[in-house]
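This week, look over our next protein:
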Amino acid sequence: MEGTSLSASFGNMYTQLLTYLLVSLGYIGIFKKCGVKKRWAFVPIAREYQISLCADKEKEGRIYTVIYVFIYLITAVMKLLEGYSTEAVLFLFIPLVGLFVTMVIYSIKIHLGLIKVFNRKKRWIWMFIFFESLTILIWGYSKKFVPSKTVENLSDAKSAKGLERDMAAIDNGLTVNIRERTVIDFFRKKTLLKDVHMQIPKGHMVLLLGGSGAGKTTYLNALTGYEKADASIMLDKADVYKEYSKMKYNIGFVPQQDLMRGTDTVELTLSDAALLRLPTSMSIMERENRIAAVLDLFGLMAVKSSLVDKLSGGQRKRLSIALEFITDPDLFILDEPDSGLDGVVARKLFEKLRGIADEGKIVVVITHTPDRVIDLFDDVIVLAKDATRTGRLAYYGSVKESYEFFGKDSMEDILLSINQKDEGGEGRADEFVEKYAESMKEKVG
């Protein structure tokens, strides 16, 4: 009986291996037709994601891949628990069945997408369900099966020429040299930001402009050291990355959403921030004086005893800014500080930020309504997606010169000029990236 059982095990293993090889060979043919690298055909899990790209079902492919991993992990845990805890195995069996059913549903969605891309009739789905190996081989090598479109291979797209050299650090301001910021995104290396170089003097209020996916958040995270890039970030010739433990207190970042407790008073909220962020060597009197000064600066002295939940939208926003300004940072960054505020209140807030910049600080702001307060800004940074969908620097300089550079008379029109055509824009990002890089090469030498 043992010999029979062993023979059956080897037979089952042989069948699984043969099926795996046949499917892999079929995937090679399909991947070649769709423009996907053939090596993925032999990588479990990854190849299923790649076939979703061929099917123009990338979102479904991500979900399918995650479910596949969970099923594999749960199955592995169940095998380890066999003979030890029957109850635990049965408990895990329930979510395993649910995940398996979900995976089958997404597999059908992906194959229906593939059928559509190959311009075949939907009844082919039954062949994929019951005769997967054979069907994939036919689709991979029969000349009758041709996809109507191929996977967009951005790595083969021509990247716009940039400055491609670091700028010298200035004594009194911020010097940014971001050479590259990359991530691994579902088996692919993705470049989020590339070749961003600039010098921002102190006393400047700067608008950060860019469409969705242009790299604004990536730029800010690299700037603050929150997510380090292949870069050199210098503030007054102090290296933000190398001296991060010290420099992080000299950089204030105000996110779009605040995390303040509504049941605390304004003064207590600011006091907690002061205890956390101000140097421990500072005396109690100095700390109290700093809190009072910030309350006064942002017009919160009259409501210092009020609960955060009782504040108006404008007051709450000013408090969230005050929390970051408690350390008196030289670099102050704000992500949509006017979100949810009406025009008058937003204007007053930006005037306050203008006053902070005039004190010798660098203030960098993202806002979706820049034209209503553009007169308060000195400079504008314009980030755009190039042909490879990588965030690039299309312009940095004075607001006044930006209109001439882009040939537009508003920030909204500038944004439209660099946005991709499939986003309703003019699709001229690469043109301006190269134009700006050439102008900078003349200045840098």
Q: What stands out?
A: The longest strand covers residues 188-201. The CA atoms of residues 208 and 381 lie 5 Å apart.
